[in-house]
Amino acid sequence: GAVVSQHPSWVICKSGTSVKIECRSLDFQATTMFWYRQFPKQSLMLMATSNEGSKATYEQGVEKDKFLINHASLTLSTLTVTSAHPEDSSFYICSVPTGNRWTQYFGPGTRLLVL
Amino acid sequence: SQQGEEDPQALSIQEGENATMNCSYKTSINNLQWYRQNSGRGLVHLILIRSNEREKHSGRLRVTLDTSKKSSSLLITASRAADTASYFCATDAYQGAQKLVFGQGTRLTINP
C-alpha cells in the first residue's frame, strides 16, 4: 500500500489565488520531508526541505514567501503556492526519507494548473 | 542545479530486448540510486548502489557504477511493456545529508 499520500492529486486555479498541497506519511513518523517540482518531460528539482518543528530550508532560487511550507506534525507537511501564476503550473511531488536514510518514498504527486 | 546527465533521453525498443540507460554525475557520492516514474505519477525506488560497489543486481535489473568515470548504467533485461516509464538516477550530492539530486531521466518505451 501507499506509504506517502498527497492531496489533492490535481488542482486547477485562477491566477492570483493560493493553493495548498498536503503530503502525509502514512506508515511512519517523518521529521523531514522533501518537496520537488517537475515540469513536463523534465527531471525533479528539489524545492525545499520541510522540517518538523522548525523552518523549512529552501534551495537556491526558490522563493520562500511564495512557496510556504508548514510541517505541522510528524506525519503532515503542507506546501502553499501563494498568488499562483501560470508559470507555477507544474507537478509537485513530496517525499519522505526511509529508515535507511538514503532512499525516499515518494508521494503520487499533485498536478497544478494555473489559468 | 542538476548534477546528473542521462542518456539517452528517450529509448524505444521491442518487448523482450534489453534496455540500457546511462547516468553521469559531477561530484563525489556516497551512493547512487535509480528510480522509476510512470507517467504522471510519483517515483518508485528501484535499486541503490554504494560508492564502493561496482555492480548490483535485482531481478531483471543490473546496475553498474564507475566512480572513476563518475557514471552508472541501468540495464533492464527481457523488457516488458509494463517497463514503459521514465527512469532517473539520483545521487546524494550533499555529503551527509538526505537530499537527492536527480538526473534528467530516460523515457523508455517498450513496444509490444
Write the layout of secondary structure elements.
The complex is a heterodimer of chains A (115) and B (112).
Chain A: E1 4-7, E2 10-13, E3 19-25, E4 32-38, E5 44-51, E6 57-58, E7 67-73, E8 76-81, E9 90-97, E10 104-106, E11 110-114
Parallel strand pairs in A: 2-11
Antiparallel strand pairs in A: 1-3, 3-8, 4-5, 4-9, 5-6, 7-8, 9-10, 9-11
Chain B: E1 5-7, E2 10-14, E3 19-24, E4 31-37, E5 43-50, E6 55-58, E7 61-66, E8 71-76, E9 85-91, E10 101-102, E11 106-111
Parallel strand pairs in B: 2-11
Antiparallel strand pairs in B: 1-3, 3-8, 4-5, 4-9, 6-7, 7-8, 9-10, 9-11
Short description:
The complex is a heterodimer of chains A (115) and B (112). Chain A is mostly beta strands and 115 residues long.
Kindly describe this structure.
The complex is a heterodimer of chains A (115) and B (112). Chain A is globular, with a radius of gyration of 13 Å. Chain A has strands spanning 4-7, 10-13, 19-25, 32-38, 44-51, 57-58, 67-73, 76-81, 90-97, 104-106, 110-114. In chain A, strands 2, 4, 5, 6, 9, 10 and 11 form a 7-stranded mixed β-sheet that branches. Chain A is 0% helix and 53% strand. In chain A, 38% of the residues are buried. Chain B has strands at residues 5-7, 10-14, 19-24, 31-37, 43-50, 55-58, 61-66, 71-76, 85-91, 101-102, 106-111. In chain B, β6 (55-58) and β7 (61-66) form a beta hairpin. The A-B interface holds A 4, 6, 32, 34, 41-46, 49, 91, 93, 95, 97-98, 101-109, 111 and B 2, 4, 30-31, 33, 35, 40-45, 48, 88, 92, 98-105, 107.
